[in-house]
Sequence to fold (274 residues):
Amino acid sequence: MADLLKGKRGIIFGALNEQSIAWKVAQLCAAEGANIVLTNAPVAARVGQTDELGKQLGAPVIYADVTKMEDLEKLVTESMAHLGGTLDFVLHSVGMSLNVRKKNPYTDLNYEYMHQTFDISAMSFHRLMQTLWKHDAMSEWGSILGLTYIAAQRTFPDYSEMAESKALLESFARSFGYHFGKAKKVRVNTISQSPTKTTAGSGVGGFDAFFNYADKMSPLGNANADDCANYCVSLFSDYTRMVTMQNLFHDGGFSFTGIATDLMESFSDQALGK
Fold:
């Protein structure tokens, strides 16, 4: 370890279990010298292992419903009190769609579920940043990150309205990033990660087939959760102070690859009956 985050303070959202990207980020932040607070939805206290991770890292767990301003107010103020000052970094790793979970087709979505998707997966990012802003909770040159996916730019039929949710999330990063940058030199970015075998990601229809497809399409292969944690820590560190309002693709080159030769060869073999 290089103590990249020595003395820094932060909040990590969404560390549900060992499959979670946020879980890996929290572990690496602690290993790099940061003091952190973990947070998750109240239901995670029953179905996840966030408390276990908190014990491992010596980090408090403050549960918060990201759709409720009062919960986020409590989270931010109690985190600053526990950590002894303003925050240097925050990871927003939050996303949920009941339409995806219930396998509702995109052409016949439940709109109440869609509202919940946008509220939990995207509006929560703005709600969080607004809370941080009102409490002057971020240190100068701090870093706020949200996790997103390339479906915000390209069509992935089984990703449903989570695609629009991610597009909104990325827009919030750009818009709030301007204000945070002007006010306190705080940068706000999103990381567009490869398909990753997390609890949330694996719930998308046809995930395994697409995971394998993306792995073959990407020149470097899929970026895994550990790789993503490394990238997050680099963006929390002082080495990336001038990076803000960006959507950063962390996907092994998938986002800019038109076609992969091995996939072309497999299609040619199929055409030839091999």
In short: Strands lie at 9-13, 35-39, 87-92, 138-148, 187-193, 247-250. The domain at 9-271 is CATH 3.40.50.720 (Rossmann fold). The CA atoms of residues 217 and 260 lie 5 Å apart. The two ends are 49 Å apart (CA to CA).
